[in-house]
Amino acid sequence: MFTRCRVVGCSRPAGARTGDGLDTRFCRSHADHYARHGSPYKPSYGAREVNPYRVAALAWLEANPNDAYVANAVGAYGRREGNPEAVADYRRRLLSGEIPSLR
Known about the structure:
By secondary structure, this protein is mainly alpha-helical. The protein has helices at 15-18, 28-37, 47-63, 68-81, 89-96.
């Protein structure tokens, strides 16, 4: 019943079969991908697809600094920025310059 991962082309055993969790549908790799992205089948969006939206969002934020929601979000980010434990790993790499910024 829990023999193989349900993703077409994946021959790894399902997590429940290996004792690596209770997932009866997907292997560990596809279960993690499903948890992060909402689909075990759809690949992650690449930077080429995401960057136009990031640029548009940044432009909107800069154009609306007095909006209550913008002020709240920017203030919350400022509080997180001073606390390295609260910043996710990808943000740490971005802030350190390991990942190039859009600016």
